[in-house]
Write a structure and sequence with these properties.
Structural class: alpha+beta
CATH topology of the largest domain: BirA Bifunctional Protein, domain 2
Shape: globular
Number of strands: 24
Strand order of the largest sheet: 4-10-11-17-14-13-12
Distance between the termini: 28 Å
CATH superfamily of the largest domain: Bira Bifunctional Protein, Domain 2
Bound molecules: adenosine-5'-triphosphate
Strand content: 25-35%
Length: about 450
């Protein structure tokens, strides 16, 4: 029974990093060339997990909301976008160099720099004065490499939502209050990518910009804070490792009225996974000014013409995936003294929902029949090699909530054994009922 087993949570990130590489969840990008710092590849299991997370976000934030439209914009926007948004001027971190070992650090993180390996007679770094380093990744468009051709990979997905605000509002015929959402890649030339995927140079964001009248900003800010916390709890993130942290007034951007971070307790401490911000009318006003277009709206009743206030929710998909993996990880000591690593994902997030495991290769015909029936509804893994205990352990590490074994009795009684990942309890059920039973048990999030 689950209650009798002792379970250890993840304490060292190394254990998760190694499981992720070993099982192909996430690993260094361009590994065969030695990797590239701040870039990660998701393997088959990680991609399924991430896709499940993204579709759940899309489902909750876009599809279930009559007042939200979803879009998908180009990664490269007109360069004026980033002037209007303030990124060209202000999107920078303070950088220091060590004159001895030549390593670079964020000035606010030198406390974690560790000893200098190059100085004689001292292990202290010899830092330069801090200078600002712009975090946007640059590229050039077209055949010319001069300054006029400079463009930026987007540093956040939301700026093109502001660029498209007028067209989306007009074509969707939405009225204020309403939101526009987008999910996609963002790029930041982080000075020190670290903590596995937590701080990467290429990552995915899921952002919602909800436009409202200034008189309703508090109402919508609290509505979206509640909604987003509900989402994180729904993922199964443990209550005592999830919190909100309101920004103090001196932390707020000059145009922002309120901001709350959703934080998760990682092995490396409490860290932000989502930001919820009242950004005022700053973004639409700036893009209106820089583009020369009127991005205001007219109230159909009062005829007031105004620039809406925006409430933003901005969540990192990779950071949330990481939180889900940290939260799911458990090392259990079983009754027989063996240990197992089990990823206790919510069944609807799990990369594989069902593994079909015939006890013998001779049972492949009914097993493949069941497999192809289940594949229509679930992500299924088929494995007929090796001892069954070892096959279960592999599925525990992948976080597969259900294993279905077919044995020689199955042909007689038309039943199979369903083994549940967390309790390890086994139950015999009619083969024809497997699909419906698993759909009920895995579908709680949908
Ligand atoms: P931080 O202070 O940690 O750099 P931020 O406050 O700059 O983050 P935002 O600009 O508010 O982050 O971005 C919204 C979300 O995007 C963050 O909550 C985070 O989940 C994600 N995110 C931002 N930067 C990165 C990164 N370098 N790697 C992975 N995810 C990121």
């Amino acid at each position: 029974m689950a209650a009798e087993r002792s379970a250890r949570r993840l304490e060292r990130m190394e254990d998760l990093v190694s499981l992720c590489a070993r099982r192909g969840f996430v690993f260094q990008s361009s590994e065969i060339y030695g990797g590239i710092n701040g870039f990660w590849d998701y393997g088959p299991l990680g991609t399924e997990l991430k896709n499940n997370l993204k579709s759940l976000w899309w489902q909750r934030v876009v599809r279930e909301r009559p007042d939200v439209e979803g879009i998908d914009t180009a990664i490269i926007a007109h360069p004026r976008t980033w002037e209007a948004s303030g990124h060209v001027e202000h999107f920078s971190d303070p950088l220091v160099d060590c004159r001895a070992c030549k390593k670079r650090f964020r000035a606010d993180q030198v406390g974690d720099a560790g000893p200098c390996s190059a100085r004689q007679g001292s292990s202290e770094h010899d830092f330069t004065e801090p200078r600002n380093f712009n975090l946007m990744l640059r590229t050039h468009i077209g055949a010319s490499e001069d300054a006029a051709a400079v463009a930026y990979l987007r540093a956040e997905t939301c700026q093109s939502i502001f660029n498209d605000f007028k067209r989306v509002r007009e074509t969707s015929r939405q009225k204020i209050p309403f939101g526009i959402a987008q999910l996609g890649k963002a790029f930041r030339n982080e000075i020190n990518p670290r903590n596995f995927t937590f701080r990467s140079r290429e990552f995915e964001q899921a952002e919602l910009e909800f436009f409202c009248h200034a008189t309703e900003r508090e109402k919508w800010f609290s509505h979206w804070t509640d909604e987003r916390m509900r989402f994180h709890r729904e993922l199964g993130l443990a209550g005592d490792r999830l919190r909100t942290r309101a920004h103090a007034t001196d932390e707020l951007a000059h145009y922002a009225r309120a901001a709350v971070d959703v934080e998760y307790l990682f092995p490396f401490g409490w860290q932000e996974i989502e930001g919820i911000h009242d950004r005022g009318s700053y973004d639409l006003s700036r893009h209106g000014e820089y583009s020369g277009k009127d991005l205001g709206v007219t109230d159909p009743e009062t005829k007031e013409h105004y620039v809406p206030v925006v409430i933003e929710t901005s969540v990192g998909i990779d950071r949330t995936c990481l939180a889900v993996m940290v939260d799911a990880y458990a090392e259990e000591t079983l009754e027989d003294g063996e240990t197992r690593i089990v990823m206790r994902f919510h069944p609807a997030l799990a990369p594989i929902q069902v593994a079909v495991l015939p006890l013998s290769k001779k049972l492949s015909e009914p097993a493949h029949r069941l497999e192809s029936e289940l594949r229509r509804r679930f992500n299924v893994f088929y494995d007929d090699a090796g001892n069954i205990g070892r096959r279960y352990r592999r599925q525990d590490e992948a976080g597969t909530p259900f294993c279905v074994t077919i044995d020689f009795e199955s042909a007689q009684d038309e039943k199979v054994t369903v083994r549940e990942r967390d309790s390890m309890e086994q139950e015999r059920i009619p083969i024809g009922a497997v699909g419906a039973v698993l759909a009920e048990r895995t579908g709680a999030l949908r």
